Protein backbone atom coordinates (compact mmCIF):
# COMPACT_ATOMS: atom_id res chain seq x y z
CA UNK A 1 0.00 0.00 0.00
CA UNK A 2 1.28 3.49 -0.84
CA UNK A 3 0.46 6.70 0.96
CA UNK A 4 0.91 10.33 -0.05
CA UNK A 5 3.25 12.23 2.28
CA UNK A 6 2.25 15.43 4.09
CA UNK A 7 4.99 17.32 5.94
CA UNK A 8 3.72 19.43 8.86
CA UNK A 9 5.41 21.81 11.28
CA UNK A 10 4.84 22.75 14.90
CA UNK A 11 5.42 26.48 15.36
CA UNK A 12 5.08 28.31 18.65
CA UNK A 13 4.52 32.03 19.03
CA UNK A 14 5.78 32.49 22.59
CA UNK A 15 3.81 29.84 24.52
CA UNK A 16 1.03 29.34 21.96
CA UNK A 17 1.02 26.95 18.99
CA UNK A 18 -0.14 28.25 15.60
CA UNK A 19 -2.90 26.19 13.97
CA UNK A 20 -4.95 26.44 10.79
CA UNK A 21 -8.65 25.64 10.42
CA UNK A 22 -9.42 23.40 7.44
CA UNK A 23 -12.50 22.57 5.34
CA UNK A 24 -13.26 19.52 7.53
CA UNK A 25 -13.77 21.83 10.55
CA UNK A 26 -10.54 20.51 12.12
CA UNK A 27 -7.43 22.33 13.32
CA UNK A 28 -4.16 21.32 11.69
CA UNK A 29 -0.50 22.19 11.59
CA UNK A 30 0.87 24.23 8.71
CA UNK A 31 2.50 22.24 5.93
CA UNK A 32 1.65 20.17 2.89
CA UNK A 33 2.73 17.77 0.18
CA UNK A 34 6.24 17.23 -1.08
CA UNK A 35 6.93 18.36 -4.64
CA UNK A 36 9.30 16.56 -6.99
CA UNK A 37 12.94 17.21 -6.11
CA UNK A 38 12.21 18.87 -2.74
CA UNK A 39 13.72 17.90 0.56
CA UNK A 40 11.43 17.74 3.57
CA UNK A 41 12.95 20.97 4.91
CA UNK A 42 12.45 22.77 1.59
CA UNK A 43 8.85 21.58 1.39
CA UNK A 44 8.03 22.67 4.91
CA UNK A 45 9.67 26.09 4.55
CA UNK A 46 7.80 26.65 1.25
CA UNK A 47 4.45 25.52 2.66
CA UNK A 48 4.75 27.69 5.77
CA UNK A 49 5.63 30.71 3.65
CA UNK A 50 2.61 30.01 1.39
CA UNK A 51 0.19 29.40 4.26
CA UNK A 52 1.40 31.93 6.87
CA UNK A 53 3.59 34.39 4.95
CA UNK A 54 6.65 33.92 7.18
CA UNK A 55 10.06 32.29 7.03
CA UNK A 56 10.97 29.36 9.26
CA UNK A 57 13.92 27.17 10.12
CA UNK A 58 13.02 23.50 10.07
CA UNK A 59 14.07 21.75 13.26
CA UNK A 60 14.06 18.15 14.44
CA UNK A 61 11.79 15.35 13.34
CA UNK A 62 9.01 14.96 15.90
CA UNK A 63 6.86 12.10 14.63
CA UNK A 64 5.57 10.06 11.67
CA UNK A 65 2.13 8.46 11.56
CA UNK A 66 -0.66 7.39 9.23
CA UNK A 67 -3.82 9.53 9.27
CA UNK A 68 -7.08 8.45 7.65
CA UNK A 69 -8.22 11.82 6.31
CA UNK A 70 -11.43 10.39 4.87
CA UNK A 71 -12.70 6.79 4.87
CA UNK A 72 -10.34 4.79 2.68
CA UNK A 73 -7.98 7.75 2.13
CA UNK A 74 -4.85 7.80 4.28
CA UNK A 75 -1.79 10.05 4.35
CA UNK A 76 1.63 9.62 5.95
CA UNK A 77 2.12 12.63 8.25
CA UNK A 78 5.70 13.70 9.06
CA UNK A 79 6.06 16.44 11.69
CA UNK A 80 9.02 18.69 12.50
CA UNK A 81 9.60 21.45 15.00
CA UNK A 82 9.87 24.94 13.52
CA UNK A 83 11.60 28.17 14.53
CA UNK A 84 10.44 31.49 13.15
CA UNK A 85 13.07 33.48 11.23
CA UNK A 86 11.31 36.83 10.85
CA UNK A 87 8.76 39.14 12.44
CA UNK A 88 6.52 39.60 9.41
CA UNK A 89 2.81 39.65 10.18
CA UNK A 90 1.05 36.30 9.89
CA UNK A 91 -1.40 35.99 7.03
CA UNK A 92 -4.02 33.37 6.26
CA UNK A 93 -3.87 31.78 2.81
CA UNK A 94 -6.92 30.85 0.76
CA UNK A 95 -6.21 27.18 1.56
CA UNK A 96 -7.60 27.51 5.08
CA UNK A 97 -10.64 28.89 6.86
CA UNK A 98 -8.95 30.19 10.02
CA UNK A 99 -5.63 30.92 11.72
CA UNK A 100 -5.32 31.03 15.50
CA UNK A 101 -2.91 30.25 18.33
CA UNK A 102 -3.60 28.05 21.34
CA UNK A 103 -2.02 27.16 24.67
CA UNK A 104 -1.01 23.56 25.33
CA UNK A 105 -4.00 23.16 27.63
CA UNK A 106 -6.40 24.48 24.98
CA UNK A 107 -5.34 21.99 22.28
CA UNK A 108 -6.81 19.13 24.32
CA UNK A 109 -10.36 20.20 23.47
CA UNK A 110 -9.82 21.04 19.81
CA UNK A 111 -11.08 18.93 16.91
CA UNK A 112 -7.78 17.68 15.51
CA UNK A 113 -5.99 14.38 14.98
CA UNK A 114 -4.33 13.05 18.13
CA UNK A 115 -1.04 12.75 16.23
CA UNK A 116 -0.87 16.54 15.94
CA UNK A 117 -1.38 16.91 19.69
CA UNK A 118 1.45 14.43 20.33
CA UNK A 119 3.79 16.39 18.03
CA UNK A 120 2.84 19.69 19.68
CA UNK A 121 3.50 18.28 23.16
CA UNK A 122 6.81 16.78 22.04
CA UNK A 123 8.08 20.07 20.52
CA UNK A 124 6.93 22.00 23.61
CA UNK A 125 8.88 19.59 25.86
CA UNK A 126 11.99 19.82 23.66
CA UNK A 127 11.85 23.62 23.66
CA UNK A 128 11.43 23.68 27.44
CA UNK A 129 14.34 21.28 27.97
CA UNK A 130 16.55 23.44 25.74
CA UNK A 131 15.91 26.53 27.88
CA UNK A 132 16.32 24.74 31.24
Outline the structure in words.
- The structure is a single chain.
- This protein has helices spanning 40-52, 104-107, 114-131, and strands at 5-10, 12-13, 16-21, 27-28, 31-33, 56-70, 73-84, 98-102.
- With 132 residues, it is of the alpha+beta class.
- The chain has one domain (5-109): Nucleoside Triphosphate Pyrophosphohydrolase.
- The strands form two sheets. Strands 5-1-7-6 form a four-stranded mixed β-sheet, with helices on both faces. Strands 2, 3, 4 and 8 form a four-stranded antiparallel β-sheet that branches.
- The longest helix has 18 residues, at 114-131.
- It is globular.
- The chain starts with a strand and ends with a helix.
Strand order within the widest beta sheet? 5-1-7-6
Alpha-beta classification: alpha+beta
The top-level CATH class is: Alpha Beta
CATH topology: Nucleoside Triphosphate Pyrophosphohydrolase
How many structural domains? 1
The gross shape turns out to be globular
Strand runs, count:
8
Largest sheet: 4 strands, mixed
Q: Which architecture would the CATH scheme give at its second level?
A: Alpha-Beta Complex
Flag low-confidence runs.
none
Distance between the termini: 43 Å
Number of helices: 3
Topology as a string of helices (H) and strands (E): EEEEEHEEEHH
Kindly estimate the percentage of residues that lie in beta strands according to DSSP. 35-45%
